[in-house]
Amino acid sequence: MSPDRLTLAVQKKGRLFEGSEDLLKRAGVKLAYARDALLRRAENMPLDVMFIRDDDIPNFVASGACDYGIVGENVLYEMASRLPRVARLETVTKLGFAKCKLKLAAPNEGTIQRVEDLAGKTIATTYPGLTDKFLKERGIEAEIIEMGGSVEVAPRMGIADAICDLVSTGATLEANGLVAFETVLESEAVLIRGPRAAQNGAAQTAELLIERFQGVIASRQ
Ligand code: PRT
Ligand code: ZN
């Protein structure tokens, strides 16, 4: 990749995609059309946008494969709990979209109604690092069961006693007979910067882009 072009990693499709695309558009970035492409060039500035899965974004930025990335704090901190180089990444700014909360939840009218009730229980989650950190801080010993998705069905299926999952409207919890009793993390999309980002010839483009992002965010408030 050219050292004079800035590279930004964004989610290919999913809940972060629309907000990321909208932010880029409002910041005046015109991306060349390329169907299903991993990399799309901006037509009006030395910027390349890489479209990947959100879980890969912290690693791409930490390794220097991309200079910057747009990712949810939930994914960033989960990866940071596993990889020191991700933990060292710098958050440039919060972006104000894809807001959600990582919450502990358990079956309605069950025996688990507060964090202390989790002692000796099983908790299903896609975020084992964040869940473990939270439990340790509270001095609670529970067994964490990592799942790739559909965490909300775990208690009903007898896989776990409780869950730790992302919530936005709360409709998914309700539909599964679950009630949240604690917030582990409040999350939104953030712009992250890699270790080498400021050193290459793309630093000026980065400065301009960050300024425009901040303008877009300010105009929304
Ligand atoms: O394919 P890829 O790995 O890139 O995407 P993904 O499937 O891992 O992630 P995606 O697109 O679902 O979410 C991307 C990011 O959006 C998350 O990492 C969060 O930062 C953010 N976000 C915001 C959410 C939600 N809101 C959200 N509601 N991510 C997931 N959810 C889930 C929630 O867990 C529940 O199962 O959406 C469901 C509906 O939520 P309720 O509360 O509105 O019912
Ligand atoms: Zn993902």
Automatic annotation (TrEMBL):
<keyword id="KW-0808">Transferase</keyword>
<keyword id="KW-0547">Nucleotide-binding</keyword>
<keyword id="KW-0028">Amino-acid biosynthesis</keyword>
<comment type="function">
    <text>Catalyzes the condensation of ATP and 5-phosphoribose 1-diphosphate to form N'-(5'-phosphoribosyl)-ATP (PR-ATP). Has a crucial role in the pathway because the rate of histidine biosynthesis seems to be controlled primarily by regulation of HisG enzymatic activity.</text>
</comment>
<keyword id="KW-0067">ATP-binding</keyword>
<protein>
    <recommendedName>
        <fullName>ATP phosphoribosyltransferase</fullName>
        <ecNumber>2.4.2.17</ecNumber>
    </recommendedName>
</protein>
<dbReference type="GO" id="GO:0005524">
    <property type="term" value="F:ATP binding"/>
</dbReference>
<dbReference type="GO" id="GO:0003879">
    <property type="term" value="F:ATP phosphoribosyltransferase activity"/>
</dbReference>
<dbReference type="GO" id="GO:0005737">
    <property type="term" value="C:cytoplasm"/>
</dbReference>
<comment type="pathway">
    <text>Amino-acid biosynthesis; L-histidine biosynthesis; L-histidine from 5-phospho-alpha-D-ribose 1-diphosphate: step 1/9.</text>
</comment>
<comment type="similarity">
    <text>Belongs to the ATP phosphoribosyltransferase family. Long subfamily.</text>
</comment>
<keyword id="KW-0479">Metal-binding</keyword>
<feature type="domain" description="ATP phosphoribosyltransferase catalytic">
    <location>
        <begin position="53"/>
        <end position="214"/>
    </location>
</feature>
<keyword id="KW-0368">Histidine biosynthesis</keyword>
<dbReference type="GO" id="GO:0000105">
    <property type="term" value="P:L-histidine biosynthetic process"/>
</dbReference>
<keyword id="KW-0460">Magnesium</keyword>
<keyword id="KW-0328">Glycosyltransferase</keyword>
<keyword id="KW-0963">Cytoplasm</keyword>
<dbReference type="GO" id="GO:0000287">
    <property type="term" value="F:magnesium ion binding"/>
</dbReference>
